[in-house]
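Encode chain A's predicted structure.
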Amino acid sequence: MRDYGRVQSRFWQSPDIKQLDEGAKLLALYLLTSPHANLVGCYYLPIDYIVADTRNPSEKVREGLRKLEKAGFCRFDQQTEWIWVCRYVFWNSFENPNVQKAAIKVVGQVPRSVCFYNDFLSTMRSDGVFSDKLLDALPQPSENPSETLSEPFGNNTPTPEPTPTPEPIPPSFPPGGKDGESDLFCKSGQDEPPEPASQPPPSAIKPTPAEFDSFYASYPRRVGRGQAEKAYRKARRIASAETLLAGAHAYAALCRAKETEPHYIAHPATWLNGQRWRDEELSDPSVDQDPFDQRAFDRAVREWENGGSKGPAPEPRDYRRSETRPAEDQSHDAMH
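Encoded structure for chain A:
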């Protein structure tokens, strides 16, 4: 039994959470902080456990689970009594390689017979969840389609023999997710909304190297470039280059305004995969007032990269307008 669980503050700002009744909200909080939960948010949770912990009647618990499943917050398998909080690993990222190794073992304990097994594994294989070295240690998806068919609540009628279906699309990154629709939820199956008509055509979403370079140079923490490039290509399927670049600038300004410690700044791949450019806090007008010289910082990054990336990389904290900038930067401005 774990000692505590984490809940992100934007939980309360999510449009999908706001529309839930109090019972469903309480159940969502319980699933995030449950004493039975584990590192990956997929765990054995009989209805009786929830009833005992929350002191709610069984029917109320089942009704709450139905609402959360419909919203895409979680998936529950009645036969095995395993539950999966769909985006749990993105809100509770692994702190170090040892924790990742422990999480791999936990993934291996999830029964292959759960109705959401393939969707769960697809999420575990998403960029930024595990390091490339550990991906091969993850189990392989189930090859039996009948193992991935969901059994809805209250359906006691026999189900027809399943027909083979293509490999399911990972439900973790719905078009328009994050707080625009809410990154607290994953959409899959018949509950998934149609793709927005404004989604750019495939011919318009192939990013250029220079486009990614501009985003990467603007992002406040430059680590895991390879994973970041993969995540950027995925993000460009649902967002324009201008949107992603503006989001990176806004996130960088927010981190500076809050004086966020570097190790608490999200990796670029994690930020992109979570569609964090949609975060409501990035639209805070106070962010634009941050005394940061973005032009000078961008120029310093370009010069550092053109020089073969020798020496320490430019740090955003050195380019606050309220602070004394490096002498070489001041002399460069004087020349222009």
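The mean pLDDT is 76.
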